[in-house]
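Predict the holo structure. Ligand: zinc ion.
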Amino acid sequence: MRNIDKTGLPGKYKAWIFQHGLLPRLTWPLMLYEIGVTTVEGLGRTINRHLRRWLGVPPSFSSIGLYSRTSKLQLPFTSLVEEYKVGKARLIMTLKTSKDEKVRQAGVHVRTGRKWSASRAVEDAESRLRHKDIVGTVCQGRQGLGTTHRQSWRTTDTGERRGMVQSEIRAQEEEGRKKKAVEMGCQGAWTRWETEERHLTWKDIWRYQPAQLKFLLRSVYDVLPSPVNLHRWGLVPDPDCVLCGKRGTLDHVLTSCQTALTQGRYTWRHNEVLRELADILERERKAQRKVKKKMVTIRFVKEGQSVPVQGTNKKSGLLEMADDWTMEVDLHGRSSFPNIVQTSLRPDIVLWSRGEKKLLLVELTVPWEERCVQANERKRAKYEDLLAECWEQVWQTWNFPVEVGYRGFPAQSVWRTLSALGLTGLERRRAVQRLAQAAERASSWVWRKREESTWKPTVGAQ
Ligand SMILES: [Zn+2]
């Protein structure tokens, strides 16, 4: 690690050298030689220290943030201790299931120190897998019945079992990390977020500017120098917001400061994200639509025949229903609601088709990640009456409230809205990424300007 540190490369390159150069060279000797788990944990701490420094996060940044596979922001690093435990388990499984009978009966003892026993961990994993066989497949969250399949322990061969035990041990490690995260008040706040997860790949990391990456990592785990954190670390006497004098938590500074709101800081950020969203929808609106109005015909099928499947790979979305869409975006206060009903409400984006009498409303919020569902319900309620009035005028109307968390974490509603409008696959993934980046970039700008009493958004904002 010291040698990597001396190379003088930027921090993220050093982190890459660790993950792809050093770690693979360590796993083999760690598996083969008798090294106690305490020693490996010590090595792990050294690695954590270096990684933190290379990524530009403070020493208090938890190692859960570096290695977690279930957190909201997943980084492409692997924990040395986890690799060690998996390696030892692999060794036990290999010896136990060897084709050579002499090896199987040799009784090789894998020693790992007192704190953690590899053979017990393998036994645990096996019994957990056997137990899962009895429980059967379970669905979590919004998963539909039968969408997931799991390998059955009973029917697999030894080679596959080896893999299953290893991933079970990884799962146990992850469970331990998650338990710790829930216990941590500040850095574990992400366990309460209502947004989708983000995987940060190496490709993403190369693209990031160091300062931007630093902001993202530190804001997700709330280790930015906000007034409250500075006070907690004993660096400033009082934890008050510079602008309004209230308690200056990270969430106060970035989403709920009244003074910042009046100065238009949050509106500026909202408009930055809205501009991206409007651009995405504008492209979708202009996209060539081959669907022309067709006569509705009834197809008769002879007895015993099946209905012919037609056009399965055609795009389907609400925008496919008409070809004369008009779009209004409420960016500079000049937009007006189409002349269907009289209203003073200004939804962020209105799309309508006079020919087909269809109307779509899209309302964007950039909230705190813990309040996404709340924001969605609020926006739904706000436009309920307007929606009912439009339906009375025989206009088919839909309302899509979408939320992009201020740290760049889009809620499920973003994915759902985009696919309802006809974006799928890679196109949709790219669109979501663009929205996330816009929110994150704007937030980091708001953060950088937090101590300036006046607000000039256009200068230097990119
Ligand atoms: Zn304030």
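The radius of gyration is 27 Å. The longest helix spans residues 158-183.
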